[in-house]
Write a structure and sequence with these properties.
Radius of gyration of chain B: 16 Å
Structural class of chain A: alpha/beta
Number of strands of chain A: 9
CATH topology of chain B: Ferritin
Strand order of the largest sheet of chain A: 2-1-4-7
Pfam family, one (chain A): Cupredoxin_1
Number of domains of chain B: 1
Shape of chain A: globular
Distance between the termini of chain A: 37 Å
CATH topology of chain A: Immunoglobulin-like
CATH class of chain A: Mainly Beta
CATH architecture of chain B: Up-down Bundle
InterPro entries (chain A): Cupredoxin (IPR008972), EfeO_Cupredoxin (IPR028096), ET_Amicyanin (IPR052721)
CATH class of chain B: Mainly Alpha
Strand content of chain B: under 5%
Largest interface: A-B, 14 and 17 residues
Helix content of chain B: over 70%
CATH superfamily of chain A: Cupredoxins -  blue copper proteins
Organism (chain A): Phyllobacterium myrsinacearum
Order of helices and strands of chain B: HHHHHH
Bound molecules: copper (II) ion
Keywords (chain B): Signal
Strand content of chain A: over 45%
Distance between the termini of chain B: 17 Å
Oligomer: heterodimer
Protein name (chain A): Amicyanin
Largest sheet of chain A: 4 strands, mixed
Chain lengths: ~100, ~170
């Protein structure tokens, strides 16, 4: 009970701090006809990217050695950006699909 | 041995493209649907052979991608022809594709291990190149129905992705 209460308090605290620091945003990236839109993304640490795949085939948003998000046909997947960096991403299944994301602190 | 295979491949793809060019007296939509569908089935069959034979994880992963994507495109193609009430029609181009694929499969069957991987992936690059060339220069320009044309255009982008993916896998085998 005490433990639960403590956990609850810390959740509230984290949420509170989060909203003071900066409101995290969700950036929607649609994949349609083999194209990421937008293909050039700028975001802040803590923001999320929601990948929406409208194609009939599965895709990925991959940064070699960093992240690998598989987005099945007709599905959406959310990725939280945890590091300030500027990286190129591509689809592992179709390397002709490319984009770039710049994450600032 | 590998050189001979390469030459045979080159001749084959040359024959293939000549043949496709000959049939350039504008294939009809039912013929185009048949050609595109057949080309997909051929690649799925080759991929299934690779999944069964290869022990290389990149090659097997690539082959699985081929099965998944070509099945998805063909499912869409079938749904479209049904909706349009079009019956895919067999034709010389489809027949020559099947003939070439039968020869290629018999050849692939004889290889094992790294030699198989190399032969399969090399053929995947060549095959996607050939099919993409046919889509670009013949099938898409000839397609009359807008929805069929649009599906072929999306298909072309997907298969161009496969061609690059196959090139990456091929580079990794060296
Ligand atoms: Cu993709």
């Amino acid at each position: 009970m005490v433990l639960q209460l403590k956990a609850w308090i810390s959740v509230v605290l984290i949420m509170g701090l989060g909203s003071i620091a900066a409101r995290a945003e969700t950036i929607r990236v649609t994949i349609e006809k083999m194209v990421f839109t937008p293909a050039v993304i700028t975001a802040k640490v803590g923001d999320r990217i929601e990948w929406i795949n409208k194609d009939i085939v599965d895709h990925t948003a991959t940064v070699k050695g960093r992240w690998d998000v598989v987005i099945s046909s007709g599905k959406a997947v959310t990725l939280q950006l945890e590091r300030a960096e500027s990286v190129d991403f591509y689809c592992r299944f179709h390397p002709n699909m490319k984009g770039r994301v710049t994450v600032t602190p | 041995m590998f050189c001979r295979t390469m030459t045979a491949l080159a001749v084959l793809s040359l024959l293939g493209s000549t043949h496709l060019a000959h049939a350039a007296d504008k294939p009809t939509d039912p013929q185009i649907a048949h050609i595109a569908y057949t080309a997909g089935i051929i690649d799925v069959e080759a991929a299934k052979l690779a999944i069964a034979k290869s022990k290389n994880k990149d090659v097997v992963a690539f082959a699985r991608d081929m099965v998944r994507d070509h099945d998805a495109v063909n499912t869409q193609a079938l749904a479209l022809v049904k909706k349009l009430k079009v019956t895919p029609e067999d034709n010389d181009t489809s027949r020559s594709l099947v003939k070439a694929a039968t020869v290629e499969r018999a050849k692939l069957d004889k290889f094992d291990g790294a030699a198989f991987d190399k032969a399969y992936v090399t053929n995947e690059v060549a095959y996607h190149k050939q099919v993409n060339g046919a889509l670009e220069t013949l099938l898409i320009p000839s397609a009359k129905n807008a929805e069929l044309k649009s599906l072929l255009e999306t298909g072309l982008k997907i298969f161009q992705g496969h061609e690059q993916h196959a090139e990456h896998v091929a580079a990794g085998l060296k």
